[in-house]
Amino acid sequence: MPSHTSPTSPNSPTSPSSPDSSQPAVTVLGLGLMGTALAAALLRAGHPTTVWNRTKSKTGPLAAQGATPADTPAEAITASPLILVCLTTYDDVTELLHPHTTTLAGRTLVNVTNGTPVEARKFAAWADEHGIAYVDGGIMAVPQMIATPAGYILYSGDQQAYESHRPTLAALGGTRWTGTDPGLAALYDLSLLTGMYGMVMGMAQSFALIRSQDISAREFAPLLADWVTAMTNNLVPGTAEAIDSGEHVTDVASLAVNQAAFPNLLATFADQGVRTELFEPMRQLLDRSIAEGHADDGLSRLAELLRAVPEA
Ligand code: NDP
Fold first, then answer.
1. Helix H segments across 98-216?
2. What are phi and psi of 152, to 5 degrees?
3. Contacts of residue 204, Cβ cutoff 8 Å, sequence gap at least 6
4. Which of 11, 28, 31, 34 to mutate to test the pocket of ligand 1 (most atoms within 8 A of CB)?
5. Distance between alpha carbon 187 and the CA centroid of its chain, in Å?
6. Same domain membership, residue 175 and residue 31
């Protein structure tokens, strides 16, 4: 697993702090909910922090905490050797930074905007062409988790730049290096988000079903949380083991038994007046697993069946 360091500062309420001139300076471009949390964490750790945002009024609260607001992106970039950018999309980052290649040259750009591995690699190639050290980042936290033990950021790309700025980046929470392929942080990020969305969608369906009987969501919540946690702890390691070894035959619960029981879910959704659109594709996948001869395998086989190009 990639290396991991613990966060170095708590996400406590902010108070005005004077920057520590012995700490490296940082610039944060983009002060939405996340960029603001990142800049506030850097300020709490004592870093002289320059901030810029398209809508200037968002610099106010950070200036009150000791940040230096910049009037233009160029002024903000010039202020620090390390530039952190956190906008909505990579297209926004492209629009913002492409006119500033000369100013960025010789600096390190850490882009924690959510994007795809393809976008990250494209951005890294552009940075390389212009002498900018590029590190891509994937934030595994909501703003409230920044600089707490619960949050961390995945990094990939220019390893030398990452290592030299790692003490600064640690002010934002845990740091996890994923590799020199700049697309890897986004790949890890999106793989983790995929698991989260699967869970969130399953939770939505679960609450819709229990509520169809007028049982309160609050009453049901502890049961659901305990069940999902127990299943996650139980299934994730075993599934990974089966996938890596290619040994999918199970003595826990076969695809045949899951495929036989799954229609009970869909029938009950229909009986209780709950829509089936989320779960129909899952039934089709289970049906395919049996049709393709995997009746004795466990659920781990599904990861193979979901690959667009089967492994040779
Ligand atoms: P917000 O919507 O709160 O902020 C978006 C920011 O992007 C604002 O500062 C906005 O400026 C700026 N922006 C958008 N388009 C442009 C542009 N064309 N030029 C300049 N600035 C632009 O989003 P978040 O802060 O929540 O999210 C930022 C990134 O962090 C996203 O990629 C998101 O996926 C990622 N992320 C967010 C998490 C979260 O929990 N919030 C969790 C993990 C990742 P302006 O204020 O002027 O509109």
1. 101-104, 117-129, 159-169, 184-211
2. -150, 165
3. 278
4. 34
5. 9
6. yes
Asked if residue 226 and residue 112 are part of one domain, the reply reads: no
How many structural domains compose the chain?
2
CATH number of the domain to which 55 belongs: 3.40.50.720
Task: Return the residue matching tokens 């076969």.
Answer: 254
113 CA to centre of ligand 1 in angstroms: 7
Assess whether 123 and 38 both reside in one domain.
yes
Taking residues 252-264, what's their average pLDDT?
Answer: 96
Range of the domain at 227: 212-305
Q: What is the CA radius of gyration of the chain?
A: 23
Q: What digits encode the pLDDT tens for the residues 204-239?
A: 999 999 999 989 999 999 999 999 999 999 999 999
Measured from CB, residues less than 6 Å from any atom of ligand 1 are 30-35, 53-55, 58, 86-88, 92, 95-96, 113-114, 139, 142-143
